[in-house]
Structures are given as C-alpha cells and as structure tokens.
Amino acid sequence: MRVKQWWIVGLGLLLAFALAQPRNEVRLDLKAFRVLSVQQEGRTVERLEAALDARPGQLIEYQLNAQNTTDNTLRQVALIIPIPTSTTYQALSAQPLRLGETLVVAEFSFDGGRSFGKLPRMRKIRVVENGKEVEKEVEVKPEEFTHARWVLPQMSARQTVLLKLRTVVR
Amino acid sequence: MNKLFTLWVAVLVLFGAALAQQTPAGTNISNQASASYIDSAGQARTTTSNQVITVVQQVYSFSITPDGTQASPGQTRNALPGAPVYFSYTVGNTGNGSDTIQLTTAQDAGDNFDLSGTTLYLDANCNGTIDPGETTPITSISLTRQGSPGASACVIVAGTIPASATNGQNGNLNLSGASAGNPSVTDSNNWARAAATTSAALTATKSASPTGSVTPGSNITYTISGSNVGGSAASGVSVGGLSGSGILIRDTIPSGLVVSVLPTGSAGAGTAQMVFSTNGTSWNPLATGNLPLTGNGTIAIGMFVSGTGAFFPQTAAYTFSFQASVPSASVAGTTYLNSATVQFHNGSSGQSITSNTTTHTTASRFSVAIGGAGVSAADGADTQTIASAFSGSTVSFNSTLQNTGNAPDSFTLSLGASTLGVCTILQSDGVTPLSGPVGPLAAGTTYTVVVRCAIPASQTGGGSVTLNATSVNNPSGTVATLLDGVDATTLVVTAVASGYGVDAAHNTNSAAGGEGSDPGNDSRAGYNPAVNPGGIALFPLEVANTGQNPDTYTFSAVLPSGWTAVFYPDSNCDGAMDAPTPAPVSGTGLLNNASAGCYIVAVQVPAGASPVDTTPVTGDNVQFIVTSTTLGSVSDTIRGAVDVNLVAQISLEPPRTGTLTTPGTLTYTHILVNNSNQSGVCSIAGDGGSFSWTYQYSLDGSTWATGLSGVSVAANGGSQTLFVRVLTPAGQPIGRTDVNTLTATCTVGSATVNDSVSETTTVVGGDLRLTKTGVSYVGSSSTVRDASAAIALPGDTIEYTVVASNIGTGSLSQVVITDPLPSYTSFVSVSAAISGFPSGTVLFSTDGITWSTTAPTALTAGGSIYVAVSTNGNSTLEAGDLMPPAATITITFRVQVQ
Questions:
Q1: Is residue B14's pLDDT more than 50?
Q2: Measured in whole angstroms, how far is the alpha carbon of residue A128 from the centre of its chain?
Q3: Strand, coil or helix: what is B521?
Q4: Most CB contacts within 10 A, which of B128, B203, B659, B737?
Q5: Per the CATH hierarchy, to which homologous superfamily does domain B646-765 belong?
Q6: pLDDT-based confidence at residue B7 (cuts at 50, 70, 90)
Q7: Which of the following CATH numbers is that of domain B766-898: 3.40.1350, 2.60.40, 2.40.30, 1.10.3470?
Q8: Average pLDDT, whole number, for chain B?
Q9: Pick from B34, B57, B550: which is nearest to A53 by CB?
Q10: Among residues 40-69 of chain A, which lie with CB inside 8 Å of chain B?
Q11: Tens digit of pLDDT for each residue in B395-424?
Q12: Looking at domain B502-644, what is its CATH homologous superfamily?
C-alpha cells in the first residue's frame, strides 16, 4: 500500500478516534507559584512556592507546560495564559520562547482575548484638546492586559515547551 | 463609545481611592490556559489546561484619624476648667478583610494636666456627640474590609478638664489602636489637646442624615451646630471678600457631592448670611444663581454671623445646615468625609475650631446587563440574530456582560434550553470554557462572553438559546426590570441551511477535477467496458465534498444479481489502478469541505454471467452510491454501463470403442455439454464411417433418427446425452474396424461452435462380446465425478464395469476375462457377478494360472485381473467349464487414481 493510502486510512481512523473520545493532542499543564524574595548569605534571591494562597501585592508566576503528545507536527500552535482579573500583569515578565533559531515573543490582549498584538499595544482614545475633540493613540498599560499568547509556527512530535509570566495580586 | 469611555475614565479618576481597593481576602484567583493549533489533518483544534486556583489571604491594615503629635495635636478642644471635652476620631479598616481594632488612650506626661474620666464611645451616627443609645463605653471596634459598608466607624473620646486647671493650660491625650488579626499592626500618632480657657470658646459639632451608607443619587443633610461654652463673649474675625467681621462656619464640600439648594442656618446673636468660596480664601454671599456647587476639595460653603465687638455671648448657639447629593454613578465603597471649621476671636486671638468628621460610604448596588457586542450592554430583554448558518457548523455569539452596579461583582452565566444544538459558554478569547462566575468585574466594566453552539448536522430550521446573567451578590430580579441582578439576551439563528453535500462524478479526464457539474456528471457517455464472464470492469470516479463541513462518505453499489463491486483509492487521480493494487476501501475517509478524492470501482462480473450489451447513459446497469456518514440523507449516485461478452464453447465426449458381431447392433452414449454463457441450439450428425454401416441417433435411446437438430442445451454446463446405435450388416470381415465421427454444431447467440467425437467399432468373430464402461467418483465417496470416467482427479476412485456376454447360439468353453490395472492407479477391489449360468462359481486370478474363489485384495502395478467361471464344481478352470448362450459375466473393478 502506498503512503497516500495509509494516509487516507489514517485520516479515517483519526476521525473515528475524534468522534469516539475527546482529543488531547496538546497537553497543557498550568502551575501557579508565589514569588518570594528572601535574603540568603547577604543576597536577595527569589524563591518559588506553590501559590495555593497569596496576599494583595504579591507576585504570582504562572508556568505553562505544553506538550505535543502526537507523533505528528502541529502547526500554528497558539498558547494562551489568561491574566486573572484579580491580578495585573507584571511588565516584561512574559519571557520569549526560544525555538531553535526562532524566538517567539509574547503577544498581549487588552480586550479579553479577542485581539492580540506585540508590544507596544496602542489604543485610540478621544480627548478634548484646545476645545476640539481629537483622536489620539496611547500605549496600553500592562495593568490592562487580559491575556498573553505565544504563537509557535510549529510544534514537533513529542515536543515540550515551557512558558512563564508573572502577575501581581490586586 | 468613546464618550462613555471618557465618562468612565472621569469616574475612575474621581474615585481613584475607591478603586485602589485590594482584592478581598478569600477571593479565588483561578486561571486556565488554552491552546489552539492545526493538527496533522489540517483541522483547527483547541484544548485547555487544568485550572489553578490561588486564594487571596488577608492583609491587616487600618488607620485612625486625625493624626497628631504632642507638639502638634490633630484636634484641639477648648473648655472651661472642670468642663468635659469630646474628641472625635474616625477608625478605618484599610485591609482586605474584616478586623477588630483594640483601642486604648494615653495621657501625656509632659503637659499641664491629665484629663480625668477618659472613656471611649462609639459615635454610631458620626455626629460628634454622644447621643442617647451611644453611652456604652467601648474598648475595641469591629470593622468590615475596606470598601464595604462598615469599613470605618466614628469614635468619641470623652474626658474632663480638671477644675484646678487655669486659663491657657493644656492637656494632651492619645488614642492608639492595634489590629486583633495582626497585633503588630498599630496606629498611635493620634494626639489631641484639651485647652482650659476662660475666654470665649465655641464648639462645632457636625451631624449628618442619613449616616453611614448612602445610595447613589440620594441626599445627605449636614448640620453644624455649636455654642459658646467659654467664659466670655466671642468676637468676629475679618474674612476675605466679606465686609465687617463675624464668626465664619465653613465647610468644604466633599469631592463629588453636589449642593443644589441654598443652605439654612441661624445664630443666637449677630446676623447670619450664607456665603461660599471657590478658592477657600475669598468668600462671597451665596445666592441661588451660584448653585449648583460640586465639591472638588476646595469649593466651600458657609455661614457668616456678623456682629460688632464681642457680640456672641456665653451660651449663645448657632446652627448651619446644607444638603448635598451623592452622584448616581458613585462607586460603592466611595467614602465622603466632611468636617466643618468655625473661625472666631476669643478676645485675645483668632481661633479656628474643627468639628468632628462625618463619614459616608456609598452603598453597593448590584445589577447586571447582558446584550449584544458593544461597549455597553443593553439591559432588559434583547435579541442577537445571525441571519443564517450551516448545519454541522458552529456559530459564535459575542455578548457584552456589563456590571451596571456600582460595586465590584461577579456574575453567573447560564444557558436556557437550546434549539441550536449543544451550546457552550466561553471566555472572551472564544476558546477557554467559562468555569464558575465571571468576575469580580469593577463597576461599569464589561466582559465579552462567547457562546458557541454546534448546530446539529440534521438541523433544518433556525433556533435560539437564551444566555442568562445573574449577579452573585443580588441573584434576584427579572429580565424586564432594569438595574437589577438578573438579565438575559436571546441568541437567534434565523435560518439553518444544510452544511453537508457531496458530488460523485465519473473521472473522465484522468485527472482530479475538471468534470461537469452535478447531476450531468453522474453518467458517462461513451464509456462501456466489456468483460468476459468472471471479468472485472473498472470505473474511475471522484468524490467531492460540496458541503461546508469536513465529512466522510461510505461507498455502496446497486448491481445486477451476483455482481459485486470493490472500491479502491486512486492516489494520483489518473483513473488507472495504482500499482501495486492498493487495499480496498469502504469509504472516502475524511474529506475537508471543498476537497475531493479519487477512487476506482472494480465491478466483478460473475462466471457464467449472461451476455449483456447495453448503451451508456440510457442503459446504465450499475450504480455507485456515495453516502455521508454524518447525514445519511446526503448522497450522490453515479451510473455506469457494463457489457458482458458472449462466450460460446461446447464439448462432446467421450470417444467410444466397441465390438460387435456381423450382423450385430451396438449402442454408444455421449454427453454434449454447453459451456457457453448462453444456451445453444445444436444439430448432431455423424459422417457414417467408411463401410456404409448404419448409424442412428437418439436423445432418449428409443426414438432413432439419421440425424438430430434443434437440440437445446442450457448455458453454463447444461448437458444432453446422445445415443448412437450402430448396426452392421451380415458378412463383414472379422477384424474390420469402422470409425464414425459424430459432430455437434451449436448456435450460441450470434456464434456457431462445434465439437466432434468418434466411435470405433470392431467386428469380432466369436460370440463373446465385451463392453467396458467407467464411472469416476470424488475421492472415495459415492459422489459421481464423471459418469463416463472422462475426468478423474488424483485420489478419485474409478469404477470400471466389464460385461462379457455370450451373444452366440452355442456355449463357450474356458472363458477368461482379463482387465489390466490402468497406469497411475492403485487397485482397490474387484468383484464379479454372473447370470445365465445353470450353476457356477466365479474364479479370480492375478496370473491366469492359479485360481481362487476369493477375490484378490491386492494387485501389483502392471498386473491384471483374471476372471473365469467354473461350472463343473472343481474350482479351477478346465475345458469343461462352459458359458451358455445369453450368459453374462459382470466384473466390477475399482481403482484409485494416484
């Protein structure tokens, strides 16, 4: 049997599989850590503890472990970490992801995940200047971000990536 | 949109303090990541992570105001020696959870006197006075979290100046607090001063109605009152912008509050006049035209009591009252602090006395609106409509959820009964499922909710589902009522068109695509494969998904009885069977919408199929059906024409040999078999041999003719037994052999075929006639393989029957019948029967010399069986053993093919 026929049969099997049970081709594991600064031998060092609880003002680091569980390459993998409403995004904490020769930088949304863009994010506002209403573009503050996203052009079979960002409890 | 946004920005700026609230202790911060991707099949997929939850812990924090040090007390009270003084404090919780503040007082060791009888009271209505009902001393106070009603309280510290104090002496007192939740959190810089005076001393007490919490849009009436509790009359002071001198009772309007009505007031002496100031230093008489005045932290109103000299005697009182309204957009938890100041002259210096501070907190109103996408949501019933969608697809509605209340709130979203299939509520990103309530959302803010419905494949009409939003803090109300805790929006798809379609077409161009449109492509003119029975006709075809959704299709066929169809993929779409031949398929596998696949149908025509000659399009005799696995009503059928060739073939077997006397008669049998796929009509004739013997033919062995015609033989192995009778005239020389060639000529359809067989007859002199026939059996069973032993397979048994007859008129002596074991066979058994003998014993021998009455059980290859009959009773063969006329010996000889 030629490869293409296997391919067609494979598609059929995949569909049957899809109909039979929920898919889990990308396994996402999200963890929350409380970031603590502690003094150790005269230096300030950071320590991560499981963030079962946190106080206002404390930093929470979210770590998203994403794995392609299939033996195939997946394309256009968009990984999204929401920024909970009771927290604000800490600027510069969403680290770029190195994928071989490419660097995937985070994109941000300030409209609940409807649109994403790289920094700086701008929004148009109308203000009154010299008695006239004019439209101005202002930079959206990190505190207004609602979601962060990394778009991986492709994810190889069995590949795992780790994404991080930090938020401050309001 | 932008106007509303600007408004909200203004609101946020105005009440910035209120928004800087901490997240309440116990709040769950939940988070769930999501991913979208394109899988190896080109399908867009989404998935979500586990949910992580972080619980917000309590932070303890509070403040006591006004602050003050021993050198610079936060408040000063003047009174006669021996008179009581009352200090007003506000204790506010600035933490994110409820707390109890322990309160203690301390006296200053470095001043003139200590106050006696210091006691703390809760000033429930914050009017600076210990009212009836407020006379129970306290040592602590419980407060709710910041931003909620009950987060702050007024406390009065009462004490008495010793009677021994003299004019001008001071006594300092401090109110300290400590958090019960975290005793290390304290506030202890709240020094106040009591001054003993015999000069004029005015008091200022502020009360407000209502107290505590206020609803947006309501009014607060502030009343400042006091009297001269000193030892002499008070004089006035000069006030910028106003003529003369007088006592000024001034009040800075709390930021955001609006004064729209003229204040009222009176004084026990002098002339009272209502005044206002926009900069806090320059004052003007207040008239209706100056209103409204909106508090900004500077604008103040007041009452100026003018008089000459020490005009305000002891015990003279004043009262000043004004009304301020709370903005309707006031955010819950917003606090409005207010205190008044009285400026007068006590005879020796100008004095400024500050009243207690009243605190109002905006009460929460919890309400919700949900409606179509936009910057604000429509409250009340509303409908969002998508004009049309395809069955089997998903539709998404973006709805705006808005906190129309004035406090942070969370909202529970639910869906009513759906006629749009299974619907799911998703977060704003349209991917992550909503788990639990949405929020907390700040007052006025919005959140986009996505409802995604998977319209069933079989749906044909429109449908709807209702998205309900309910305030967690106020889960009561109705959809129709505005600004309450319940709202809903109806999501409608007006029309649903089928999202499934398939077009099967003949692949006429040996390439993908390029075929005509349906249904014209369902037949293929000019394509008419012709096969022999048992052959295979191929039909290349293409299947295109013309629907809107990915789908798989199954193959089936409608064929003449006994025919079968097998479907193969045609990976390169060239219309020819791939090499090596791929595995058959039962369907297309997954086809994305607007994509197609190529296949080849192999129609297997069974062996023996009758000839077919049909015309494509008008005479199509096979149908191939492609049916959607998702929606069985979606299918397409294409048709084709298969011709079956005529195969004409007959056999006439077996050749016969025999002997007869002269004159004599002998009958042969032959089998005519029609192996064509159509019945034949045959004529049978012989060439009559070389010696003018008479040959006659019959179909039944009783009616004889010189030739046969019009003999019908069924197709596919149909047979006819033919009888041939040979009659020899007298006088033929012994040993003459005549060969009659018998030919069957059959017309099968349009073809004519023939076959011949011979009969070889030899004239014998004696009167003993031998005939030998054979029957082959399948294996050792009794199933006949061939009635004339023309066919035998290895392992088959052949039974030969040799009949020896004395056809003469005299007895024959010492008759021995010999039959050799045929080559490639093994001996099985032999037996013999006799008839026509008066008496006799059958004798067997394997060498012709030694005889036995018992049949042999073995015979070597190349050997022969000898059979004779002893009639004289001595069990050996002698000249005296006679075979009478008409007697027969029948030998049954069984062998097995090796």
A1: no
A2: 37
A3: helix
A4: B128
A5: Immunoglobulins (2.60.40.10)
A6: very low
A7: 2.60.40
A8: 88
A9: B57
A10: 51-57, 60, 62, 64, 66
A11: 999 999 988 888 888 899 999 999 999 999
A12: Immunoglobulins (2.60.40.10)
- Residue A80 to residue B47, Cβ atoms within 8 A: no
Give me the pLDDT at residue B151, please. Answer: 87
Contact: B427, A112; criterion CB under 8 Å: yes
**CB atoms near residue B431 (< 10 Å):** 21
> Is A109 in contact with B54 (Cβ distance < 8 A)?
no
Residue B617, classified by CB atoms within 10 Å of its CB into exposed (0-12), middle (13-18) or buried (19+), is middle
Q: Closest residue of B to A8, CA-based?
A: B589
Nearest to B38 among A62, A75, A109 (CB): A75
B500 Cα distance to chain centroid: 17
Which 525-584 residues of chain B touch chain A by CB within 8 A? 550, 552, 569, 571, 578, 580, 582-583
Topology classification of domain B200-363: Immunoglobulin-like (2.60.40)
Largest CA distance in chain A: 77
The whole-angstrom distance between B302's CA and the closest CA on chain A is: 34
Question: Looking at the predicted structure, is the pLDDT value of residue B289 above 90?
Answer: yes
**Given the DSSP bridges, would you call strands B75-79 and B191-196 parallel, antiparallel or unpaired?**
parallel
Tell me the whole-structure pTM to 2 decimals.
0.51
Enumerate the residues of chain B whose CB falls inside 8 A of the CB of residue A56: 22-23, 56, 59, 96
Report the residue from B29, B35, B448 with minimal CB separation from A28: B35
Has residue B562 got a pLDDT over 70?
Answer: yes
Tokens of B506: 């003949």
Nearest-CA residue of chain B relative to A52? B54
Taking only the tens place, the pLDDT of each residue in A72-123 is 899 999 999 999 988 999 999 998 998 888 889 999 998 888 889 998 888 8
Reported confidence tier of residue B172, pLDDT bands at 50, 70, 90 = very high
Q: Which residue has the higher pLDDT, B484 or B73?
A: B73
| pLDDT score of B766 | 61
The CATH homologous superfamily of the domain defined by B59-198: Immunoglobulins (2.60.40.10)
Cβ <8 Å between B37 and A85: no
B residues 820-839 closer than 8 Å to A (CB)? none
- Selecting from 1.10.10.10, 3.30.390.30, 2.60.40.10, 3.40.50.12780, what CATH number does the domain B365-497 have? 2.60.40.10
Tell me, what's the pLDDT at B319?
95
Residue A129 has pLDDT above 80, yes or no: no
Nearest to A53 among B49, B54, B440 (CB): B54
Q: Which residue of A has its CA nearest to B2?
A: A126
How far is the first Cα of chain B from the last one, in angstroms, to the nearest whole number?
102
Q: Does B35 touch chain A (CB under 8 A)?
A: yes
φ, ψ for residue B14, nearest 5 deg: -60, -40
Cα distance between residue B350 and residue B447, in whole Å:
57
For residue B128, the SS3 value is coil
